[in-house]
Amino acid sequence: MLKEVVDKVYSGGRINDDDYLVLEKEGDLLQLGILANVIRQRKHPENIVTYVVDRNINYTDICISACKFCAFFKPPEDNRGYLITFDELAEKIRETQALGGTQILLQGGLHPGQALEYYEEMVRFIKATGIHVHGFSPPEIYHFANLSGLPIKKVLERLIAAGLGSIPGGGAEILSDRVRQQTAPRKCTADQWLEVMEEAHSQGLRTTATMMFGHVETSDERLEHLRRLRQLQDRTKGFTAFIPWPFQPGHTVLAELEKTTAFAYLRMLALSRIYLDNFANLQASWVTQGPKIAQLSLSFGANDFGSTMIEENVVAAAGVSFRLSEQEIRRLVTDAGFSPRQRLMDYTLVAER
C-alpha cells in the first residue's frame, strides 16, 4: 500500500485522505522528506528560497478569548494590558522601512472596548506611510463583526476601503471544533474561520493559512484541518502560503504538555507539502524551531523562510525567542544550497538591492 501511495506522489497525482494516513503511519522521516522535496522542486524548479522583511506589530494584548495555548494575552481587567498608540505605531513603521521592510503584520487580542472605526483609522494611518498592511486574522475580523453588528462581508469591505491589503492565517490553530472548544471556546469556530477567509478571497484579498499542532489534537484532526484548507483553496485559490508550526507550551495553561520535537515538526511539514498540492508555498518556522531546523526544512518541502520578524511577541511570551537578521537568513539559505530572494506578501520578488 505504501508503495502505491509513493508512486502516486511521484507521478504527480493528488493523494486522498486514506493515502495521507498510509504515509503518516508507514512513511519514515527520510521517505517523507524525499517525497516533499520532489513536490517542492516540481513547484519551484528555480531553486529560490524566498523571505519577507516585515514587522509583527501586536496592537494590543488585551483579549477576551483567554486561549489556553496563549501566554501573551491579558484579560480586560488586568491593568498591565496595553493598547498601542499611533505615535508608537509610527516609530515602529519608520524602523521597519529603514530596514527595507515592505509590510506590517498587524495582529492583536480580541479587545472588547474598541469599535470598528478604531481599526479603520489604524489601517488608514499605517497605509498612509506607504507600507503594505497584512492584518487582522479571522478571529479578529469575526470579533469586529460581533462588536459592530455588521456581517463579515461589510466589515471586510470597510477595512479594504481603509487600506487593508491582505489577511494573515492566524487563529486557525486546528480547524476542528472539538479542539477549539477544549482550548479556545470563546474564539470563532472552524466554520467561521473558513467563512472569513472565503469572503476575503471573494473580495480579492490574498491570505495565508496556518496550523498550530502538537497540543490536544489527534492525527485525524490534523488531517481534517488540511482537508478543509485544501477544499477552500480548490474553490477560491486565495491562499498564498501555508505555515505549520508546533505549539509552544511554556508559560501557558497547557504547560504540562510535552513540546513537539524537531523530528515531529519535519514529519508534519513534509506531510503538509504532500497533501496540500494546491498551495504554491510552504513556510519554514524558524521562529519556533530555530535556524538549523528551519534550514533543514528546505529539504522537507518548505520553499520560503518566512519573515525576518523584526519584532515578535506571542511566541516569545511562551519562552521561545529566536532572532534572525535579513543577512543571517540569506546566509542560512545560501548555505543550504539555495538562492535567497526577498519577496512581497503575494510572492512577487523584490528587485535585488
Write up this protein.
Helix content is 45%, strand content 13%. The chain has 353 residues and is α/β, with parallel strands linked by helices. The protein has one domain (49-342): TIM Barrel (Alpha-Beta Barrel), CATH 3.20.20.70. The strands form 3 sheets. The chain has a 4-stranded parallel β-sheet with strand order 5-6-7-8. It has a 3-stranded parallel β-sheet with strand order 9-1-10, covered by helices on one side. A 3-stranded parallel β-sheet has the order 2-3-4, with helices on one face. Helix 10 links the parallel strand 6 and strand 7. The chain is globular. Residues 314-322 have low confidence and may be disordered.
Descriptive labels:
alpha/beta, three-stranded parallel β-sheet, 15 helices, 10 strands, 13% strand
Please state the structural category.
Answer: alpha/beta
Helix count, per DSSP? 15
| Silhouette | globular
Give me the count of strands.
10
Percentage of residues assigned to helices: 40-55%
The CATH topology comes to: TIM Barrel
Rg estimate, integer Å: 19 Å
Strand content: 5-15%
Order of helices and strands: HHHEEHEHEHHEHHEHEHEHHEHHE
**CATH homologous superfamily caption:** Aldolase class I
Span between termini: 50 Å
For the sheet with most strands, the description reads: 4 strands, parallel
Count up the domains.
1
